C-alpha cells in the first residue's frame, strides 16, 4: 500500500505506505506539463506491429486526461494489449531516497488480456460495457491517475490492494495488483525524458502478503512455478 506517510518496512524489504482519501477539491482541469502520447503510441506500434488500435477516450477528465488504447488481437498473437496515455502528462512525486528520480518520474501502464475479453460489439468501447469486461479499463485508468491524485509514485514491484482486498471483479480471487517492468526498454523521448512502462498484473491477497514478506523476486518465482501468464486470467486461483 502506497501513500504519503511512510509507515514501516516488511521483511521482504518493501516500504509500506498508507493513503487517506484526499479532500474533495472539486473538478480540476487536466494539467499537461509534458505530452508523450504520440511517442507512446509509436512505441507500442513497434512493440506490437500489425495491430489495429481503438481508443477509449475519457470524456470528462480530472487532474490528468487518461485514455486507454486497445490494440486488437492478431492471428499470430491472439491477445489484447491495453496501454494508457496521459499518465505521463505530469511527473510523479518520488520520495527523496529514490536514486535517479529523473529516470523514474514518467510512466504509463500496460495490461495484456486474452482474446476472450470483449471491449464491446464492433469495438465500440463505451461506458455501456458490462462490468465483467469494463473492470479492466477501469482498473488501468484508476492506477494511471493514482500517483497524481495522491502525490506519490508507482514503479517496478509495487503492490496495491483493492481497498481491503475486495475482488477486482465479481467471482475473482484477485484483490490487488503488482506492477512489473515491461519486458522492453523504456521510451527515450525526443526531449530527453525517459518514459517507463509497467505491466499491471492482478494478484490475490495471499500473493500480495507473500510479496511483502519475501520480496518481489520470490513472488515472481512462485507465479512462474504456478504457470501464471502475464496475460491476465482474472478467474485464476491463487498460486499460494
Description:
- This protein is of the alpha+beta class and 240 residues long.
- It has a domain at 31-160 and 179-201.
- It has helices spanning 37-47, 131-149, 205-214, 216-225, and strands at 5-9, 15-18, 53-56, 67-71, 79-85, 106-114, 159-161, 174-181, 187-188, 194-204.
- A hairpin with a 5-residue loop joins strand 1 (5-9) and strand 2 (15-18).
- Helix 3 crosses helix 4 (216-225).
- The longest helix is centred in the middle third of the chain and has 19 residues, at 131-149.
- It is globular.
- It starts with a strand and ends in a 15-residue tail after the last helix.
- pLDDT average, as an integer? 88
**Strand element count:** 10
Low-confidence stretches: 1-6
Structural class: alpha+beta
- Biggest sheet, in brief? 8 strands, mixed
Query: What pattern of helices and strands is seen along the backbone?
Result: EEHEEEEHEEEEHH
Overall spatial form: globular
Which keywords apply here?
4 helices; globular; alpha+beta; 21% helix; 240 residues; two-stranded antiparallel ribbon; 8-stranded mixed sheet; single chain
Topology at a glance:
Layout: E1 5-9, E2 15-18, H1 37-47, E3 53-56, E4 67-71, E5 79-85, E6 106-114, H2 131-149, E7 159-161, E8 174-181, E9 187-188, E10 194-204, H3 205-214, H4 216-225
Parallel strand pairs: 6-10
Antiparallel strand pairs: 1-2, 3-4, 4-5, 5-6, 7-8, 8-10, 9-10
Helix pairs in contact: 3-4
Amino acid at each position: 500500500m502506497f501513500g504519503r506517510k511512510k509507515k514501516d518496512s516488511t521483511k521482504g524489504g518493501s516500504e509500506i505506505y498508507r493513503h487517506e482519501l484526499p479532500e474533495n477539491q472539486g473538478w480540476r482541469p487536466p494539467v499537461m506539463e509534458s505530452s508523450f502520447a504520440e511517442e507512446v503510441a509509436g512505441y507500442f506500434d513497434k512493440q506490437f506491429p500489425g495491430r489495429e488500435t481503438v481508443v477509449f477516450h475519457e470524456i470528462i477528465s480530472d487532474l490528468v486526461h487518461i485514455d486507454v488504447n486497445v490494440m486488437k488481437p492478431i492471428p499470430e498473437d491472439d491477445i489484447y494489449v491495453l496501454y494508457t496515455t496521459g499518465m505521463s502528462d505530469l511527473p510523479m512525486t518520488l520520495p527523496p531516497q529514490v536514486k535517479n528520480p529523473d529516470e523514474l518520474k514518467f510512466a504509463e501502464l500496460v495490461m495484456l488480456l486474452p482474446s476472450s475479453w470483449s471491449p464491446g460489439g464492433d469495438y465500440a468501447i463505451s461506458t455501456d460495457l458490462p462490468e465483467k469486461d469494463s473492470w479492466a479499463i477501469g482498473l488501468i485508468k484508476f492506477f494511471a491517475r493514482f500517483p497524481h491524485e495522491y502525490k506519490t509514485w508507482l514503479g517496478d514491484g509495487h503492490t496495491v490492494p483493492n481497498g481491503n482486498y475486495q475482488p477486482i471483479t465479481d467471482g475473482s480471487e484477485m484483490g490487488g495488483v503488482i506492477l512489473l517492468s515491461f519486458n522492453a526498454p523504456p521510451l527515450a523521448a525526443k526531449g530527453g525524458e525517459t518514459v517507463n512502462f509497467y505491466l499491471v498484473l492482478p494478484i490475490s491477497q495471499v500473493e500480495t502478503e507473500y510479496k511483502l514478506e519475501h520480496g518481489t523476486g520470490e513472488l515472481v518465482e512462485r507465479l512462474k512455478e504456478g504457470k501464471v501468464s502475464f496475460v491476465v486470467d482474472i478467474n485464476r486461483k491463487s498460486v499460494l
